[in-house]
From TrEMBL:
Protein name per its UniProtKB record: EF-hand domain-containing protein
Chain ranges of the EF-hand domain: 35-70
GO molecular function: calcium ion binding
Keyword hit for Ubl conjugation: no
Lineage: Eukaryota, Metazoa, Ecdysozoa, Arthropoda, Hexapoda
Species the sequence originates in: Tenebrio molitor (Yellow mealworm beetle)
Length: 162
């Protein structure tokens, strides 16, 4: 059923056949331009509060959830981390705003932020003595964690059928 749904998503021109681009979207949805554009649109829907199609650091960092009628809740959890991520990974030209081009780079699977997040997660999970460094013993104590990591097993990152 999952494969059929993926096929139907990719088959835009003919439901019974895929073009080369559609086949790539079917087998590698993470690299599909249409999927990446959809992710950017979702970012705008979620964060672009003034609707100008430019994300500011405040819009990206300060999360808001809608409540009843006039009630809006501001969530400041990890705001400093989100601000740092905006400056480092989203706002590529440093002008304080992220346009569609910058957001496309941000969501692209080739973006270095994905491997940075994976490395941070591995460090947090395996750093037993909390010195922000991994020793050989700490790595050997968690072999499955590292061998199943997206950084080591890249096929698993893109193809869960392996």
């Amino acid at each position: 059923m999952r494969d059929k749904a993926s096929w139907m998503e990719a088959a835009r021109s003919n439901p019974d056949a895929l073009t080369v681009d559609e086949f790539l979207a079917f087998t590698h949805p993470e690299s599909s331009a249409a999927n990446q554009l959809a992710l950017v649109d979702e970012l705008y829907d979620k964060f672009d509060r003034d609707g100008d199609e430019l994300l500011t650091e405040d819009e990206f960092a300060v999360l808001q959830t809608e409540g009843n009628e006039d009630e809006t809740v501001v969530v400041r959890q990890d705001e400093n981390e989100r601000r740092a991520e905006f400056r480092k990974s989203v706002d590529l030209n440093g002008d304080g705003r992220a346009d569609r081009r910058e957001l496309l780079h941000y969501v692209a699977p080739q973006s270095p932020r994905h491997s940075e997040h994976e490395a941070e997660a591995l460090l947090a999970l395996a750093d037993g003595d909390h010195d922000n460094m991994l020793s050989l013993d700490e790595i050997l104590a968690h072999p499955d964690l590292f061998l199943k990591s997206k950084m080591v097993d890249t096929g698993r990152s893109f193809h869960d059928e392996f």
